[in-house]
Input
Amino acid sequence: MSKRFYITTAIDYVNGQPHLGHAYEKVIADVIARTHRSFGEEVFFLTGTDEHGQKVQQAAHAEGKSPQEYCDALAAKFQALAAVLNVSNDDFVRTTQPRHKAVVAAMLNKLHAQGDIYKAPYRGWYSWKEETFLTDKDRRPDGTFDPFWGDVKELVEENWYFRMGQHQSWLIGYIEANPSFVQPDYRRNEVLGFLKSQKLEDLCISRPKARLNWGIPLPFDPDYVNYVWFDALTNYYSIPVALGDAGAAAPLGDYYQGPTANLQPALWPADIHVIGKDIVKFHAVYWPIMLKAAGVPLPKQVLVHGWWQKDGAKMSKTTGNVVDPIAVVNEWGVDAFRYYVVRELAIGPDGNWTDAGFQARYHAELANGLGNLVNRSLSMLQRYRGGVVPPRSDELAAEINPFSQTVKTSLAQHQLQPALQTIWAIVNRANQFVDQTAPFKLAKDPAQAARLDAVLYNLAETCRLLAVLLHPFLPETAQKMYTQLGLAGAPDRLTLAAWGGLEPGHRIGEPAPLFPRRDAPRH
Ligand code: MSP
Output
C-alpha cells in the first residue's frame, strides 16, 4: 500500500477549555490535509489531547473528579471543537488510551535496554505550580523567583534521564542538511542558534509516583511514571504503530506488546507536524533525538505557526481577554471563522484578533465579495435564462486560468494566505466584470442576447472554479456553491479547476445568500 500523506497537530492540554490558539492550529492543519486530498492523495490527519501530568491531576482534584473522569469530559470538548470547526481528522489520539501507552512503554523499554536511559540523583529548585525544576538563570536580580513559579522548594530526588548530549552534533548536521525540516526558515535558525550555543542536557523523563501518579508507569521501574513530553511527543508515532503500520512498528520489534488494528496503513514517517512557536524545542530537538536513538525514521517537517493575541494583548482567562471559537462559529458560521484566521495570518508570524477586523473582512470579502458575486451571478442566470447554462464562452479564461494555476502552486507549497489572496483576485475580477458588462442593462435589449449569454456563462463558470479552489479552506461554502450551481458530488478535486467544466444546457439550482450581511453586529 502506498504511503499516505500523514499530518498531525500538537495534542492539546486538557487543563483548560479550548480557545482560539487551539482552533487556529487545527484549521490550518485541516486546510493542508484537505489540500492534499484535493490533489488526489490519500491523507491521514491526526489530532488529539495530552492528558497526563501534574496540572491535570490538580485540575481534576479541584473539581472533585478522578483524573480519568476529568480527562474524559475535557477530551470530549476538544473533539467537539474539531467537529464544530469542520476539521477532517481521521483519528483522535488521547494519551490515556491503551494503544498509545503500549507504544510509549515499548519506546522506553527499547531505549532502556540500549542504555540510553539511566537513573541519577537530582538536586534543584522545584516549582510545584509549573512542574519544573528551576535554575539560577530563573532567579530575579534580587535572587528570588518570580511569583509566577508559585511555591519553589529545594528538592533532591532520583530520576530517570534520557541521554541526549551525544546526538547534538548529529542533529545540527541534520537540520543544516535538511532545510525543510523546520519551517519557516527563521524558526530553523533559532533552533540551530540554540543547538550551537548551548550544551544539550540529558532529558529528565520521570517523576516519582509519590509526587505524581497520573502518568504512564515506567515499565522498568514501578516507582516512577513517565513525565509528560516523552509521552506526549510519542503520540505521533504511537497511532501508526497501533493502527498496524508495519513499517512504523518494525524498529520496536518485540518491545511492542500492544494491540494492532488490522488496517495496515502506511503512515510513518509523518509528513508534517503542525505546532505553535512555544513548543519548537520539543519537536525540533527532543523528538528527532528520541526517534534517532530508537532507530525510527524522522518526520519530514515541523511547521511552526505564530501565536494569536486579542486586541494587542495576550489572551488570558483571568482578564476575560479571550476569543471563544465556538461562540464565533455560532454567530458567524464556521467558514467565516476559518476564512478569517487563514486570511489574516500567514503561517509563521504572530497575529492579533480584533472583533472589528473580523467583521470588516466578513462584510468586505465574504458578504460583499464572494457572497455577492455568487448570488448575483446565479440569480441573473435564473432570472434571464431560466437557470439554464448558456453556450460556452471563454472570455475570462485567459485571465482566470493563470490565477487558478497560481492558487494551485501556492497550495502545493502550503502557502495558504497567498492562495486566498489569489482566489480573491478572481472574486474581484469577476465582480468587476459584472460592473463592466452590466448584464441587467443587456437584459433589456433583445439585440444583446448573445452578449448576455456570454457574460452569464463566464460568471457561472467562474463560480464553479471558485468552489473547487475554495474547498480546502471553506468546505461548507464550496459545497453550497456547488449545490446552488446544480452540480452533483463535491468540489473536492483540483483537477476540476479547469476552465469550461460547466456544460451548456445544464440547469442550476436555487441561489441563496452564502454570507448574510450583519449590519447590526451583536458584539
Ligand atoms: N500539550 C502540548 C503539546 C504537545 S504536542 C506533542 C501543548 N498543549 S497546549 O494546549 O498548550 O497547546 C496546543 C497548541 O496550541 C500548541 O501548538 C500551541 O502553540 C498552540 N497555541 C496555544 N495558544 C496559542 C495562541 N494564543 N495562538 C496560537 N496558537 C497557540 O503545548
